[in-house]
């Protein structure tokens, strides 16, 4: 990861210097993180990383200035419980913005799913079940043996 950090930083700085950052949204995300070995088993941060993978959206500042409701929703959602289903809804919303996205029919899924676009306010009191987050990686579950959960903040 350390080798990638410098290349990524250089790329983002070049994007800004070129002027393209004014009309470009950048999405950075990771998988579930490390889930085995000394770091995962011996440190709280290993389980925390596993339950909360990296997700950064970099939005054009000009767009955020022009759309204060969008900026407010994105800002509030930074500390909300999110799932890959929400990321999917968000990408669909980016394509249809400002019209809300047409989401797939998830009624046949094994768990109840109610994905939310990050471009609109995500409820603050959201359960892992509502977000489509499996219980074994739910960050809301604290201190239960064998669980990777934690309370973020």
Index terms:
153 residues, 7 helices, disordered C terminus, 42% helix
If you had to describe this structure to a student in words, what would you say it looks like?
The chain contains seven helices and two strands, in the order αβααβαααα. It is mainly alpha-helical. It has one domain. A two-stranded antiparallel sheet has the order 1-2. The radius of gyration is 17 Å and the shape is flat. The C terminus is likely disordered.
Helix percent band: 40-55%
Any idea what the shape is? flat
Order of helices and strands: HEHHEHHHH
Largest pleated sheet? 2 strands, antiparallel
What are the low-pLDDT stretches, counting only 5+ consecutive residues below 50?
Answer: 142-153
Strand order of the largest sheet: 1-2
Number of strands: 2
Head-to-tail CA distance between termini:
24 Å
Cα gyration radius (Å): 17 Å
Instruction: Give the averaged pLDDT, no decimals.
Output: 82
Total domain modules: 1
Beta-strand content estimate? 5-15%
**Helix/strand-derived class?**
mainly alpha
Number of helices in the DSSP assignment? 7
Helices and strands, with pairings:
Elements: H1 2-18, E1 26-29, H2 37-42, H3 44-51, E2 55-58, H4 61-66, H5 68-77, H6 84-96, H7 128-131
Antiparallel strand pairs: 1-2
Short description:
This protein has 153 residues and is mostly helical.
């Amino acid at each position: 990861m350390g080798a990638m950090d410098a290349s990524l930083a250089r790329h983002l700085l070049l994007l800004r210097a070129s002027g393209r950052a004014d009309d470009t949204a950048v999405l950075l995300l990771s998988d579930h993180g490390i889930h085995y070995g000394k770091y995962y088993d011996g440190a709280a941060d290993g389980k925390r990383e596993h339950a909360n993978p990296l997700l950064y959206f970099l939005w054009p500042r000009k767009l955020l200035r022009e759309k204060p409701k969008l900026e407010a929703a994105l800002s509030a959602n930074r500390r909300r419980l999110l799932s890959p289903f929400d990321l999917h809804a968000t990408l669909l919303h980016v394509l249809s913005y400002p019209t809300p996205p047409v989401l797939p029919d998830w009624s046949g899924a094994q768990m109840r799913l109610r994905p939310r676009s990050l471009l609109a306010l995500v409820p603050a009191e959201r359960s892992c079940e509502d977000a489509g987050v499996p219980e074994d990686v739910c960050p809301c579950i604290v201190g239960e043996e064998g669980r990777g959960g934690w309370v973020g903040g």
